[in-house]
Every structure is written in structure tokens, then in C-alpha cells.
Design brief:
Strand content: 35-45%
Number of helices: 5
Number of strands: 7
Largest sheet: 5 strands, antiparallel
Bound molecules: succinic acid
Oligomer: single chain
Order of helices and strands: EHEEHEEHEEHH
Distance between the termini: 59 Å
Length: about 180
Amino acid sequence: MSGEAWIFGYGSLVWRPAFAFEERQPAYIEGWSRRFWQGSTDHRGVPDAPGRVVTLVRQPAARCVGLAYRVEPETRERIFADLDARERGGYAQHRERLHRADGGILAAEGLLYVATADNPNYLGPASLDAIASQVRASSGPSGSNVEYVLRLAESLRALDAVDDHVFELERRLRDGRKRGGKRCA
Ligand code: SIN
């Protein structure tokens, strides 16, 4: 493949792309929902105690808001290789149509990373309370799992995104912190 490319981030790539891009803008994809169903053994957890990070699951009427980054033809292969390495804990490249916030088509095919149920670190569904407990207990080489959730929620709010799964999990984590604070006072 040649030419410029668009990369769509919906998890850590929203708030920490860590690659050089020419332009970025809010975007969404259709037919997918963000879920904390992927285990992280290399970023927000460790092999014996995986954290939980987001992946996408198919949901026909859903819309997932994130950020789209345009990268230049000269740098795209290097960036894809770096992202393949960063996302190697279970994610695979996938291509989807990207929409602008106003509904127009931004790119017929944007690159994104999806961790499907057949990868070894996949954890799958759990109650939000169980996910919150696991997140609270986890950290890995990239930092705490709580930080991942809170930074994602803050970034999505800045994009005016509606994502009950993320915001409900954030609420549980923040409530837990407040309760913890009172006990210590
Ligand atoms: C993404 O951010 O688009 C992929 C999932 C992640 O690295 O959190």
C-alpha cells in the first residue's frame, strides 16, 4: 500500500499516540462498541495479574468515537510496524470506514487495532464491578490500570463522546477513591 493513511485510535491511542502525525481529528466508526474485555499483560498488567484494557466488539447499531490521525506516505510503514509492536498483546490490524464528527466520510479505510476473542489475552465480558476491582488491582510497565481508564474517560469527555461503559467504570473507580480517602482521614 502507498499514499497517506488514517489511523483510528479508541483506547490509549486517543491520549498517547506516540507517533508523528500530520493532522488529527475526532472521528467515529459504526457497528462497534468499546469494551474493557481485553487483558493486558504487557502495559497495564503483568502475565500473572493482567489488567483490563479496551477492545472493540461488534454491535450493529453502535458508534465508537475516537481520534483519527493522518500520517504521511513516507512514514506510514514505520508507524504501522511500531504500532504492531505496541499492540502485540493480542490486537490485530483491522480496517474500517472512518466518519467525521459531522457524519461525512473521512476515509474509506482507516487502520485500527482490534483484539478479538481468539487471542490468548482476551478476557471477555464481566460485570462493571468485577472489571473495576480488577482495574484497581492492576498495573504494569506502562503504569496503573486506573490511570488508563481515567485518562481514556477524560479524553472521551473532551471529544463529547457518549460511552456509558467507560463512564460507568470511571465513576466506580472515582467513587472508590473518595471512599478510600474518607477512611484514611
Ligand atoms: C487503541 O487505542 O486504539 C487500541 C487499544 C489500546 O491500545 O488501548
